[in-house]
Amino acid sequence: MPFTFGEYVLYRGKSLYTINECQIIDSFQELIGDLETLTYSSYLNELIDIATVNEESNRELFKLLVSTYYLLRHKVIDTEILIRAFELGLLKNTGYGLILDKCVKCGKSINKSNYIDLNSYGFCCSDCKAHLSANISYSTYNIIKYINNLPFDKLSRLSLTKENKGEVYDVLSKLVGQSYSRRPKSLDMFNYLIKEE
Question: What domains can you pick out in the chain, each with its CATH number?
């Protein structure tokens, strides 16, 4: 059961761990009830797998994952917004947090931007829009900044257009794809199926 939250007693063998004892806290069985929830839950697991180092503790990331599971199960927040918030939290908790309040080129304070420098993990002011910057809408900058600073329990207030969701997805999928040793593939087939509908 890939989404089971519990307390485990492990025995380390030569190359693998063996579970000696397990007490299940929550199985998150509901996450396998429909294709969308199952796919997004698997995507979260894949992100954790590619973004963390074996045997290295990251309590904040663990809390983020379990909180996301609970919110996915209860469907109180738009799933796409929740997943984007998780991606931002993942980037932040693994050292790739976005620079949102100042230009990544000159350091000038910014409160709006429509240029993101993916290599520098931040946004550019209008004076520094370098050739390496990607053009995005002002609303996408504001959405990313808002989600990045908003506690998970407040995400239900946020409603986005399909275009905004698409642009935020594009930005974050590029950042996630370039930040870790491999690109997550869990959503590829799901996205293909959605486009075919």
Answer: 35-196 (1.20.1440.120)
